[in-house]
Model the fold of this input.
Amino acid sequence: MDTARGAAQAERSANQVACLRALADADDAQTVGVISAETGLSRPTVHAVLDDLVEAGLVVPTDPSIVGPGRPARAFRFAREAGLVAGVDLGPRGVRAIICDLSGRRLGYTELKRDRPAEISSIQSAIHAAADESALDLGRLRAVGLALPGVVEANGHLRASLALPELVGLPIAETVSQHLGRPVAIDNDIKLAALAEQRGGAGRGYSDVVYLQIGHRLSVSIVLNGVIRQGRHRLAGELGAQRGMRWTRNADRGQLIWTSHPTGEAVLSAAAAGDADAQAEIDDFCAQIAGRIATVLLVVDPEIVVVRGGPAQDSAVLLRSLEAAVERELLFPERPPFVASALGREAVVLGAVGTAFDQFSTRIYGVHDYPSPWRRITHDLERTSK
Amino acid sequence: MDTARGAAQAERSANQVACLRALADADDAQTVGVISAETGLSRPTVHAVLDDLVEAGLVVPTDPSIVGPGRPARAFRFAREAGLVAGVDLGPRGVRAIICDLSGRRLGYTELKRDRPAEISSIQSAIHAAADESALDLGRLRAVGLALPGVVEANGHLRASLALPELVGLPIAETVSQHLGRPVAIDNDIKLAALAEQRGGAGRGYSDVVYLQIGHRLSVSIVLNGVIRQGRHRLAGELGAQRGMRWTRNADRGQLIWTSHPTGEAVLSAAAAGDADAQAEIDDFCAQIAGRIATVLLVVDPEIVVVRGGPAQDSAVLLRSLEAAVERELLFPERPPFVASALGREAVVLGAVGTAFDQFSTRIYGVHDYPSPWRRITHDLERTSK
DNA sequence: GTCTTTAATAAAGCCGGTTGCATAATAAGT
DNA sequence: ACTTATTATGCAACCGGCTTTATTAAAGAC
Done:
């Protein structure tokens, strides 16, 4: 008895999404005729669907803005300002927050440094600060995404974290959610960065991506079929959890030691400028980590590897060295290309807000299966580098 | 303009599948009323759908076979004999073939040894032999699944194979398909074994399974979200493709060397009987391979690990030793359980026929998205051990 | 003020589903 | 052998969603 109703309503729902997408893709107002042509739906249907969407507040009628002869067409516009979604990246040294509208446009952004141990309240503070930047009304906030370093359980607790030990065991998602009265999606920072790169960064267009972050420690995260690989115990990619398996020998308590130049960045820059010692040190480093990377590649055989490490302009040195080192590990010539991260350090916070869109799509838009605006989320990157 | 038609027909199609499933699940004849109750569809709808299915030959009306008072209900039965699906496991020493009906029942089975190099024609021969066993009419054959050792490309060629070098580079799937006039699904043998174990073997009920075959060489295959992980170059799980990465030190050109007893099976049996030397040798072996297994576990973090190795009755010795060795490698206590393969050597051929059901479901049944009868395929295992 | 052009609305029909009711087919009772 | 109780069938009516077709409304152009 529910089947028929369900199927019929599903069809209407699908058409709502189709019309909303057509309206949101072209970001100025559109007439019913155009939407009808674009979606393949008949004019009366489009009209009925748009009425529903106007009712729901997702679409607003606009002035016809006529040009030619004939009766002016009623125009409609996606009400992208109807709701807000926030993303927060709570790291060991600071917090970043971003606020987007329903179309994924970046409306507010904040970056706060911190010396003291982190507190849960700094998450809400960052959201408020980002909202104040553009005088946004947080009453329209629909959902929040949160990125944390460490093993994040499905229930929103932080099971383990070397970077934020002060928050381990706390019900973080629950606390923030109760405080803000909004749903909170929470996940590991590297996993969210990988997702952002796959959806709209260097891995765009590929569904299977391995993301590699090379800093003072090495982190791996994997996106398969367009979704983050979590694993039964949320340990997928946690290669550091293997005993006695240090990635490199020149690491001392989580700090990489470089000899040719004081910092990793300096070594990269020098190698890029032609310094042979620096290049040799990088090649040696890559050779050390290549074995385990090769194993990861042979387990999942991804389409592409996105690498974040060192300053963006010098990443080519690291990439080529790593590529060569990995190639030496493999018996077959088939190997995914290694490309530099496109989103850099922003990837984490973009992944956070994006995953909120993904997980709470229905609550955010009020329709089922509306796709998240990853394209725009990741595209508005320039605004930050101002 | 196609949307409405499409949605409506999709609904009808879904209802066809629902009715067919209800009919196939209870494998004797069912009345319209029962199906209606089971599917939640109304009686007139069920009747219309069944008429379609009878038309398509998938369902046959049956004698009412009444019992109580009242007008006898028309009964219908799933026409499981309407089509056949074959699976073939072409190995280095022989070939196995199985033939199932539409419900996944095993109707024919054959096992042929071979000393000479393999030929493609032995695939068809095995199918014919299996059909002859039960006097089956291969005119009803709908699809074929084929398992091969080595790297199998998506187009049906064998890219690399240590076990069957004589077939490398040949368009195997295409040749068999043209010869039989039927679609042929082809894949790597270990991958298909993993799939069979996940769908109806020791990994039943789990969607993320790592399958480990421990013989003279070690093979890994991974099922994620219920589908075989293939990888961009079909190399997912091919850990042997990493240079210099021998799994164990007591291997000589692909042959494991045992000292306490002549064969691996003998070592396992002795250890099971309490032989300390044998147990020590097994523990040493497991310690050697545990590192790489741990890495695989940390990359994908599966729900369960299915292990095939040694004779079934002594597998507990190997499993416990392996479990302990892997546990020593991991920093976190979370670890998937290790269980013994339920399908044994049959897993490969069962996976072959099952993947044919999966891939050619529409052609086999004539309806969209009818689920493969994995349960019955893997359940009829006893018939072989006769 | 009328004509032309374009869009909105209304009406009718299709397809798939459901509910409700009269009817047919049987076993059991007399 | 006939009636009755019982059960499933088959038909009719209706709903929800979409489409097509025809009619009406609203603007600019002459």
